[in-house]
Amino acid sequence: MKIVILDGYTANPGDLSWEALKSIGELTVYDRTRPEEVIGRARDAEVVLTNKVCLGRQEIEQLPALRYVGVLATGYNVVDLQAASERGIVVTNVPAYSTESVAQMVFAHLLTVTNRTEHYAVKNRAGEWTMSPDFCYWDTLLTELAGKTFGIVGLGHIGQRVATIAQAFGMKVVAYTSKPADKLPAGIGKCTMEKLLAESDVVSLHCPLTPDTHHLINSQTLRHMKPTAILINTGRGPLVNDQDVADALQDNRLRAFCADVLTEEPPRSGNPLLSCERAFITPHIAWATQEARARLIAVAVHNVQAFAEGKPVNVVN
After folding, report:
1. Can you tell me the distance from the alpha carbon of 280 to that of 278, in angstroms, rounded to the nearest whole number?
2. Nearest Cα to Cα of residue 232 among 108, 74, 144, 99
3. CA–CA separation, 178 vs 153, rounded Å?
4. Is 284 annotated in the active site?
5. Residue 61 falls in the annotated catalytic set
6. Contact in structure between 84 and 63 (CB atoms under 8 Å)
7. In the prediction, which pLDDT does 130 show?
8. Which residue among the candidates 236, 255, 293, 295 is catalytic per the annotation?
9. Which residue is catalytic, options 206, 284, 293, 295?
10. Where residue 152 falls among pLDDT bands split at 50, 70, 90?
11. What is the pLDDT of the chain when averaged over all its residues?
12. Distance (Å, rounded) from C-alpha 125 to C-alpha 302?
């Protein structure tokens, strides 16, 4: 069995191993693959693994040996599922491997805004504290989380984990979710989107990207939010309208925007959020802790092994 990984670098830049796949078949790993290179590199492969390299109908129809596509992520929009199904090609994903890491990033972002530890560390390296006339100093607003309201949009695995951590900080948690109110975990109140935006001191987005949630946060919905609120997006970039959020920050209608995802990745240099002083942007790394990536690879290997044994798991088509 010939196995090809089209873009293995982000999951494994060298600190982990693909060795387990070699016991299943002949393995070739490419760090990155440009769209025009896909057919040439995958032409003879029965198994193709991809993270962000697209396998659309055009590619699938030109890969006669292909029997299996393993997505090295939870989202699988990079594969044309209908085209794969028509050919009898199995497509799998890796669900829920990054829950803990993404939830951790939510609070790394939140604490960046409320406590500004890196801001003070940088200033103190420049001698700011040594020149202080007092035993302490601060030049930013410092905020206690206990007693504040944390609004969660989308209550899947990550949303529920975020809720648990918020409760540990002593925060009131409300959620906008399709789950019935009597099925929510203890201590989480269900509310409408408008009420959540109006009452929350922190709003964190964890819903899937669909036509209904595209630009869920826009100039209209931002008007419902407190000017002191903090907006966090570790879900999908297009859940927010970048320009509308940048405008809200500029006009002091939003305290801060924290995001690990943007509409276009990597973003263009002109993205309005990149130059906003109160926009805190990380480069889509919430999933990328070494522990989460090790889980990702382990599940991906298990998926391939199960397929090879005729009992595929985590199938999405």
Report:
1. 6
2. 108
3. 10
4. yes
5. no
6. no
7. 97
8. 236
9. 284
10. very high
11. 97
12. 47
- Given a contact cutoff of 8 angstroms between Cβ atoms, the answer to whether 276 and 287 are in contact is no
Instruction: Tell me the two tokens of residue 197.
Output: 């935006």
Task: Tokens 């199960």: give the residue.
Answer: 306
Catalytic residue among 128, 194, 265, 291: 265
Tokens of 237: 């970039």
CA-CA distance, 214 to 210, in Å (whole number)? 6
Q: Amino acid letter at 139?
A: D
Q: What's the whole-model pTM score?
A: 0.94
The model's pLDDT over 111-128, given as tens digits with 9 standing for 90+, comes to 999 999 999 999 999 999
- Known active-site residue 109: no
Mapped to the 3 state alphabet, what secondary structure does the chain carry?
Answer: CEEEECCCCCCCCCCCCCHHHHCCCEEEECCCCCHHHHHHHHCCCCEEEECCCCECHHHHHCCCCCCEEEECCCCCCCECHHHHHHCCCEEECCCCCCHHHHHHHHHHHHHHHHHCHHHHHHHHHCCCCCCCCCCCCCCCCCCCCCCCEEEEECCCHHHHHHHHHHHHCCCEEEEECCCCHHHCCCCEEECCHHHHHHHCCEEEECCCCCCCCCCCECHHHHCCCCCCCEEEECCCHHHECHHHHHHHHHCCCCCEEEECCCCCCCCCCCCHHHHCCCEEECCCCCCCCHHHHHHHHHHHHHHHHHHHCCCCCCECC
Task: Please report, for residues 47, 92, 174, 315, the alpha-carbon distance to residue 304 in angstroms, rounded to integers and kept in the order given.
Answer: 8, 9, 39, 11
